[in-house]
Amino acid sequence: MAENRIKGTSLFSPYKMGKFSLSHRVVLAPMTRCRALFGIPGDALVEYYTQRSTPGGLVITEGTLISPTAPGFPHVPGIYSDAQVEAWKKVVDAVHAKGSIIFCQLWHVGRASHQVYQPGGAAPISSTNKAISSRWRILMPDGTYGTYPAPRALGTSEILEVVEHYSQAALNAIRAGFDGIEIHGAHGYLIDQFLKDGINDRRDDYGGSMENRCRFLMQVIQAVVSAVGVERVAFRMSPAIDHLDAADSDPLNLGLSVIERINKIQLQAGAKLTYLHVTQPRYTAYGQTESGRPGTEDEEAQMIKTWRRAYEGTFMCSGGFTRELGIQAVAEGDADLVSYGRLFISNPDLVLRLKRDAPLNKYIRKTFYSQDPVIGYTDYPFLGEANAGQAQRSRL
Ligand SMILES: Cc1cc2nc3c(=O)[nH]c(=O)nc-3n(C[C@H](O)[C@H](O)[C@H](O)COP(=O)(O)O)c2cc1C
């Protein structure tokens, strides 16, 4: 937004995000960590999120399940039962006590699941009957990796029920005290399975044309906006990321089409979504290489700039940001906010470290999804705490 491209705007300068006042632009990216035993966020999550909260900072939760058919990882938290809502209140209260704002990311994995995660051992639901290819592996509850099974394409008449699950989950999140919600429309999960023409092979009103592929998403956004108000709703997309086979033949246009529709919703609502969160094409999820990348790094940068210019609201970028790249993105007006993922896993005080240009702890990939409530989760040292034991964390 033009008003933010003023001289002196930096990653560490305040930002007015709708009705929220941020004191800096370093955001905790949503990250699945598999520590919410049996779907209930407990003390480990309270500690993890509190550690990463700063006065005037923005924290986004890990993908949080909207319904019992939504999971595709072990021990992911939900926001569809009263017990889950009650448990989240402790996390939210602790984060608020540190002065941070917290958004809940609403998630349905669609076909990125397995019968073991589904009620009654049913097939996962999706836009399609096609399975994710064997190039990708699913993390099973016992820690091994399996192949993705064939999903069941939702019947046209079933889709509005899933839309309803999103709006109910959003209401639940507000009841738990969250400041807002982020709809997860990225990375090959359910919403992306409708958006991308490399997956969506439907012949009804939800497949084929751009209008039809965007229909499910737009219904979700409209429903959630009606439920909790436009200023509490954010959206995440990754048109150029082919994680879990979510490829599109024209990612630039797909991103622009979604943005155009969100701009229209904002116009009708008379207010903006809290932010649009976009994953950089360069992000290679989980260290796996992207195939079919749309172009060179320069072309990818141009794609992000085009989306940024088209979107009439707060623009957040994520994926591969170092301190320097984050500073540059904000200073040059390419992003209002930058979300950090892996560096925030290993540096609970990342904001302070980036401000001071202090050394960073390296992350340990093998504990990203392990279920230990402490190791690789809340035991990364704060600045000044490093000792011999913690130095071992430097191995990657
Ligand atoms: C362990 C892990 C779990 C993640 N889980 C989610 C998730 O639940 N929802 C989501 O939108 N992105 C998820 N991501 C992507 C991150 O939000 C972020 O965009 C990504 O890590 C790139 O940022 P980075 O280069 O700063 O790590 C995950 C990433 C990692 C490493």
Describe this structure in words.
One of its GO terms (cellular component) is peroxisome. Residues 10-361 form the NADH:flavin oxidoreductase/NADH oxidase N-terminal domain. Keywords: Flavoprotein, FMN, NADP, Oxidoreductase. The protein is an alpha/beta fold. Helices cover 32% and strands 14% of the residues. The chain contains eleven helices and 14 strands. The chain has helices at residues 43-51, 82-97, 159-175, 190-195, 210-228, 251-269, 297-310, 323-331, 342-346, 350-356, 388-391; strands at 15-17, 20-22, 26-28, 58-65, 101-107, 125-126, 138-139, 145-146, 152-153, 180-185, 233-237, 276-279, 315-318, 337-340. It has an eight-stranded parallel beta barrel, surrounded by four helices. A two-stranded antiparallel ribbon has the order 1-2. A two-stranded parallel ribbon has the order 6-9. Helix 6 links the parallel strand 11 (233-237) and strand 12 (276-279). Helix 1 (43-51) packs parallel to helix 2 (82-97), helix 5 (210-228) packs parallel to helix 6 (251-269) and helix 6 (251-269) packs parallel to helix 7. The chain is globular, with a radius of gyration of 20 Å. It starts with 14 loop residues before the first strand and ends in a 5-residue tail after the last helix. The site of flavin mononucleotide has 22 residues, from strand 4 and helix 9. The site of flavin mononucleotide (FMN) has 22 residues, from strand 4 and helix 9.
